[in-house]
């Protein structure tokens, strides 16, 4: 097997993470935290680019890591028009859509492809993104709503979800991802619940739109009547209401904290309200798992759990107790973005996957009828 060097770059809301891989073995990783006041000095997201780039270069210099022999720079994707899953070359069109947040979502992850491209151009390497949040592989039945010309879209932790399924297929099932059916959950600051049929993520919740279980900072699904009533009672604008979908809802609105560990500590120390909030979130996760089982017609090889909250034995125990009648439950606690990005690049370099070209056209925009 050829030996490749891959640098993965993951810009977050208050951090920049990098990791160096030799093939799929991580040889160096580091996360730098950014003070919010530092980031607030930049007028736009793209204005942060030189600051993030210089942060990475300083970190590499301090650890005596050269970029001269890097084969691929992989950036966390984002800001793109709905696309199929896979590994994509960062070209001019993809770069422009990331810069302009073509899908309307402004998130630091959009800087990942831009940073990868800048480094790749300087060091004569390739630049890629792997399974960005803009992956849309919904089956047709998952798109329809009860309002004319309003169709479902989803934003999920596609990178983690797909990599968890790929690795479970390889290491446990001894099969290809394309030969298996899974319910895959990412349970962290946001919660994604998805149905995977034969290598495609055919349904799931829209975490950006407030759909799905409540989460530490997300309200989760409510009825339209609930939301209208809440909006009217509190004299909220649509922009203010939208913040409850991603920033001000969930634990933070109910308890004033977003830390799941702190919430469970309160519950364990006799706080019945904290216990109700915690158990209600798990109950909602279980309901969504059940709905994805129906999407797959009960043909489920495994239920896979990833994300930071999966370190909670209580959470895993409750899901196993409630959902194992559907399929065996496997817990993979933590996040695997850096490993997933490197693995996606390696699959291309080894010829297991074709490097895809970003078209900038949505994979779906209407029904023919």
Write up what this structure looks like.
It is a single chain. This protein starts with a strand and ends in a 20-residue tail after the last helix. Strands 3-2-1-4-6-5 form a 6-stranded mixed beta sheet. The chain has a 5-stranded mixed beta sheet with strand order 9-8-7-10-11, with helices on both faces. With 369 residues, it is an alpha/beta fold. Helix 3 (92-100) runs antiparallel to helix 4 (110-123). The protein contains 12 helices and 11 strands.
Topology (SSEs and partners):
Elements: E1 5-11, E2 15-22, E3 25-33, H1 36-40, H2 49-62, E4 72-75, E5 87-89, H3 92-100, H4 110-123, E6 126-130, H5 158-173, E7 181-187, E8 191-197, E9 200-204, H6 224-233, H7 238-246, H8 251-255, H9 260-268, H10 272-295, E10 302-307, H11 313-323, E11 329-333, H12 337-349
Parallel strand pairs: 1-4, 4-6, 7-10, 10-11
Antiparallel strand pairs: 1-2, 2-3, 5-6, 7-8, 8-9
Helix pairs in contact: 3-4, 5-12, 9-10, 10-11
